[in-house]
Design brief:
This protein is mainly α. It has six helices and no strands. The longest helix is centred in the C-terminal third of the chain and has 22 residues, at 125-146.
Amino acid sequence: MNKQGHVLNAVLLGVGLGYVLEPAGDLGTFRTVAEVSVPVVLGALFPDVDTAFGRHRKTLHNLPTLAVFVAFPLYFDNLYFVWLGVLTHYVLDVLGSRRGIALFYPLSDREYGSPTGVTTTSRFANAVTLAVTGFELAAAAFLVHVAPDLVQQVVEAVPYTQ
């Protein structure tokens, strides 16, 4: 996806996740939207820093990078929701782009993408971005409202000491 698509995806996710987490539509919802949006947008933009150094869609578009961002809130009690922005950036690049990303870099240069993805210059890029964003929000709503026990089990399985 292109930079515009990543920004669009991140902003819509921030607002959408705010409503998923606090659906009342009151002041609490708007506080949650603000709390979630800034770190999600920052996380969603971070992987493309590798356009300035390294190899784009490899250096910062991989599972080890994601693991670092997942570990931060677990071990340092900060950077909440930034990992979610990084993850959704990856999802958008894998599902929305033909090229994909090198998930296992530096162990492998192989890029994983979707045959239904489009090129970054395609006139359908924004439509694909909206479709992937809708999928991501549906998955989040499912995890929060239908299967919250699954999320709790995953969190409890992570080795964490305070």
